[in-house]
Amino acid sequence: MNSSPKRFLIALLATAGTFAICGAEPAADAKQAVRKVLNDQVKAWNKGDLNGFMEGYWNAPELSFYSGGKKTRGWQATLDRYRKKYQGEGKEMGKLTFSELDIEMLGQEHALVRGRWHVMFAKDRAAGLFSVVFRKMAPGWRIIHDHTSSE
Amino acid sequence: MNSSPKRFLIALLATAGTFAICGAEPAADAKQAVRKVLNDQVKAWNKGDLNGFMEGYWNAPELSFYSGGKKTRGWQATLDRYRKKYQGEGKEMGKLTFSELDIEMLGQEHALVRGRWHVMFAKDRAAGLFSVVFRKMAPGWRIIHDHTSSE
Question: Which residues of chain B does A6 touch, with a Cβ-Cβ cutoff of 8 Å?
Answer without folding.
Answer: 3, 7
